[in-house]
Amino acid sequence: MRKLTFALLLIITFMSQAENPLFRKFDTVHGTVPFDKISVTDYEPAIDRGIKLGLEEVEAICNNRAYPDFDNTIVALENSGKELDRVLNVFYPLMSALSDDEMMAISMRVTPKLSDYSTAISLNSRLWERIKQVYDNRAKFNLDAEDSMLLQRTYDSFARNGALLQGENRETYRKLSSELSELTTIFGQNVLKEMNTYEIWLEKKDLTGLPEGVVEAAAFAARQKGKDGEYLFTLAQPTYMAFMKYSDRRDLREKMYRLYMGRNLKGEYSNVEVMKRIADVRRQIANLLGYKTYADYALKNTMAETPDNVYNLLNQLRDAYRPAQQAEFKEIIDFASNDDSQPISDLKPWDYSYYANKLKQAKYDYDEEALRPYFELNNVIQGVFGLATKLYGLTFVENSDIPAYHPEVKAFEVKDKDGSYLGVIYTDFFPRDSKRPGAWMTDFKPQYIDAEGHNSRPHVSIVMNFTKPTETKPSLLTPYEVETFLHEFGHALHGLLADTKYASLSGTNVYRDFVELPSQFNENYLTQKEFLDGFARHYQTDKPIPQNLVDKIIESSQFGAAYQCMRQLNFGLVDMAWHSIEKPVDDAVAFEVEAGKSVEMFDPVEGTLMSPQFSHIFSGGYAAGYYSYKWAEVLDADAFAKFIENGIFDQKSADDFRMNVLMKGGTEHPAVLYKRFRGQDPTIDALLVRDGIKKPVGNTIPQDLPSRKD
């Protein structure tokens, strides 16, 4: 009986493994993820299996009796763990885009396992010795630039992840790494969970000033909850931003602001102690590895290289933009104090968007809501995809045979100018309870050259939280949402056009302060009439967007630039402060206020704090790296200046950008790639001109970004 039971158990185990689609190569169109066949219960056993296989592959490298060389050690390590990567490249993107309590529970269970797996590899002394031997003898191996970069990054990765540690320090590092992995997971889950708790129910009398589309969406949301005649608002970004910009009710704007900025500060999903511990664990890890602060550690392999260079850029921009921001605020306050409907003399953070929008309308007769009919989502898709057609010759064809992970998600095959297959892109545009706020791009599969020499092409996704269609209207976007689409599509192109040997160097696997260049470069096209004329048509009449409205977008594009810059500088300074600590933080509120003091625009509001919801730096990979948005903004303005000079669809400039930036990934130092494309080092001048801070003549602000130290 026992033998029969054991045999049945083996059969059941074998059958369950055989049925798990994550255990085998995906037999689908282009090897895309078979989302329709994967259940939540498949992930954990597949992750466990991937860890086991990965460790076996590493052990095989260590046991190889041949003298360590580039192929049998560095390339072999690069190719190890592919089964685990294949599973995680499905699991983690869906954790952000289609999560539920069960997914979150799995994430909490596998996080320490994955941390232990990573640490077991990085602290494997036998593996490290082989890597070090290859590195020390690298001159013998006749490596090309990409091989050399892979070797350097492999060596640095191990050195920066504890390989040089000895004895007790190695165990301390292991424990800290595991704790950090768990803490960052908790932080991100708390942000999502608390966001989903907010439902703001309003009556018709509360809706004055709100555009028809916003009201209709709130009524539709209420009806879905079975409450006809009421209006449901959430803190989803499109809803929140529209409310703050248009609501005439100052009391409700204040309420919404306090709710939005008070998230994760108190209660069940508070992140205060979590983020304080994350910052201190990072500090301890950096100290163990010989760095004064985590910022010193994190910036080592970036274009900026040091905290001093980051602060130099942030302070340059602060000094350049502060006078413009102060003049802008004075103009808004003067305007608001004379507003007939509700004059004020003291500008609060919940007033800025409202009065800035009214002033913008008064100055330029500009209303984003009036532009929505010209940015129907399907037309925008054609326009944004069409940008890649004009610049790089790419085409996008929807393929319904490719499985998607949600009914709203669409998959497109991407082909190059010669008709060859380039990859797959998934689009996911609308908010839902299972999706975190914001917008992002991710890989389901990166590009690389496989063992048979075949160019394995990428599968990428772009995920947004756009204004949803209603019962009477399609999804109509604001110019800001179109800009967001352009941004994420720039990241997608970075992944789709990748052409490298190694997955770890392909696409967006570049220095963090270089990764935003392709995305922010794309944003420049929003103010280009020649681009808008190609797709911006009224969704009812099909008439092209009138010239006067295009002019308004262009004329008003500099409005609020100083405010937006100071806001971004605040994010960057707060991030740098958290990751420059030399001892644990006691009072998180006082700490954040002090960190952003030099770029402060409003008095602190009691009961609000940005840091507990700052997912980018506490759970999203931008620790000591948020400055990179401004760094990349300098780069993108400087890069687009080449297109302004030669034509916004200039083929030679586009080919240079594709060849030297989009295709190369992290195969060479980004400063080298950028200078090869641009023909010069970047300066902040083009950004100052674009934002109206500096006139486009003379050379009164010649400060350069720090050049690479060769």
Describe what you observe in this structure.
The protein is built from 28 helices and nine strands. The model is unreliable at 9-13 and 698-710 (pLDDT under 50). With 710 residues, the chain is mostly helical. Strand 7 (448-449) and strand 8 (455-456) form a beta hairpin. Helix 2 runs parallel beside helix 5 (101-122) and helix 14 (307-337) packs across helix 15 (352-364). It is globular. The strands form three sheets. It has a five-stranded mixed sheet with strand order 3-4-5-9-6. Strands 1-2 form a two-stranded antiparallel ribbon. It has a two-stranded antiparallel sheet with strand order 7-8.
Largest sheet: 5 strands, mixed
What is the terminal-to-terminal distance? 73 Å
In total, the number of strands is 9
Average per-residue pLDDT, rounded, comes to: 92
What value does the Rg take, in angstroms?
Answer: 26 Å
pLDDT < 50 stretches = 9-13, 698-710
What fraction strand? 5-15%
Structural class by sheet pairing and helices: mainly alpha
Globally, the shape reads globular
Task: List the strand order in the largest sheet.
Answer: 3-4-5-9-6
Oligomer: single chain
Estimate percent helicity.
40-55%
Number of discrete helical segments: 28
